[in-house]
Give the backbone structure.
Amino acid sequence: MTDPQPSENQKSRVTLWQAVKSTAAAAFGVQSEDVRQRDFANGNAGSFIIAGILFTVLFVIVLVVIVNLVLSQAG
């Protein structure tokens, strides 16, 4: 008996960490074409939705902290 070989799709499946990195790169406009094609071909929509929500929440928190620091220094 031989073990079945994983299909090409299973071998190159996008992990949650890759989705987070891809989301950050896309948000800053530095996403490569190869990675974008890999994401569309092998990515799971749920991973990218989670990564996008996490990125957005973190981005808003950082902006609020920066604004509060600037306002506290100004007055």
